[in-house]
Amino acid sequence: MIATVQCITVRWTKLSRGAPNSAKRAAVPMSFALQPVSLPKQGTRSAVLHWVGAYEEDGFVPHQGIEVKDLTGIHDFDAELATLKFEADDLRIEYKGGFWCAGAPQRPHIVRSVFTLRAGQWGRVAANGRFSHNNEWAYYRKVLNIAFSETVPAAGIFNGKPDAEFRDEHDLW
Asked: What domain of life does the native source organism fall in (predicted)?
């Protein structure tokens, strides 16, 4: 089975809280088309990681990268906001609230199961936070789009409505 994880990180400062930069920041989508990959031999458990970063200092132009990992024999995989747990024919997603976000508003350091995917399904985990950095605030939005399938999903798999979704987004004023 293949877990395809698209991790989107948007990072900004107070310079992009208002116009005109806030419009550029808000225009960063919650999903992107997947890049083509080659997998290890068929029948192995794999993770396809598609990283997307859109940062204020680059005008919120998305930068993308891709990585493939052989997860044969591995039952848990750390994917930033969440841990992916391979269980029989399912993929359980555990959100690591508070562990990635030590900023404001404070969130409890709780790991909790938020949804389970079956083959052919995809889900989304989204969170945001505000962090103190060099005596100023920095803001982040992270989105994990996760597909669970027997083959690499189509490039547009993350278009449309996910089969499951968990959001931990706060008003960052």
From this structure: Bacteria
The answer to pTM > 0.70 is yes
Average pLDDT of 92-106? 73
Q: Which structural domain, as residue segments, surrounds residue 160?
A: 2-168
Does 67 map to a domain? Answer: yes
Which segments of 7-92 does DSSP mark as H helices, in order? 21-26
Cβ-in-10-Å burial (0-12, 13-18, 19+) of 24 comes to middle
Distance (Å, whole) CA 117 – CA 48:
16
C-beta separation of 82 from 94 below 8 A: yes
Total structural domains within the chain: 1
Find, among 124, 126, 127, the residue nearest to 160 by Cα.
124
Q: Residue 172's pLDDT band (boundaries 50, 70, 90)? A: low
